[in-house]
Amino acid sequence: MQIKNQTSDSADLYFYGDIVSSWWGAWDDTDQYPESVKNFLNEVQGKNINIYVNSGGGSVFAGMAIYNMLKRHQGQKTVYVDGLAGSIASVIALAGDKIIIPSNAYMMIHKPWGSMAGNSTELRKMAETLDNIEIGILNVYEENLKEGVDIETIKQMLEEETWLCGAEASKYFNVEVTGENKAVACASDCFKNYAKVPEEFKARKASNKQNDDGADETKLNALKWSFR
Known about the structure:
The protein is of the alpha/beta class. Helix content is 39%, strand content 18%. It has one domain: 2-enoyl-CoA Hydratase, Chain A, domain 1 (Alpha-Beta Complex), CATH 3.90.226.10. It has helices at 34-43, 60-72, 88-93, 120-143, 151-160, 166-172, 199-211, 217-221, and strands at residues 10-15, 48-55, 77-86, 98-102, 106-109, 162-165, 176-178. Strands 1, 2, 3, 4, 5, 6 and 7 form a seven-stranded mixed β-sheet that branches. The two termini are 24 Å apart. One of its GO terms (molecular function) is ATPase binding. Keywords: Cytoplasm, Hydrolase, Protease, Serine protease.
């Protein structure tokens, strides 16, 4: 990982692609994985870090590992949600000591999901595993709730797949809202799997496709994670 804008006391970290388990799952330089983040943090020990997020999510286990590593980092952590902190990227965003989200950026939360084939016993076990994963995600959300917000409210939001603009996110989580960010493109393609994508993100996606020089759609469509 290239460390950007490093000074004597600060450095920048970007989550502008998918959250994947390892280097083998990273399709381009924007994808992040635990080993890469660990190496980054080793290089900037004791420094303040600015964390920029524009991601639709990815591997929940990789995201949890990254969240825990960031929480352990000794230094002020300021998170900027530039466009979207979706799915497990919403958990990563909450690792900050200060979380800033523009009024036109989003957090998206939903129940974890996965795909498998197997018999009825194996499928029931898969459902139990997903429920346990959800408990871990909810624990992170609960630690970052605004005073007076009940975790049961967040559970219902997960059930429904909820997209929160900056102002809405600030009603439930300890985040700071700023003015609109007009410079950020749409987040990584993995958000195409979600059911309630705001029209704004659909428009960004269409605009990016028109300006694309011919990205390998086959490769993009092949992105599938065990859990999201």
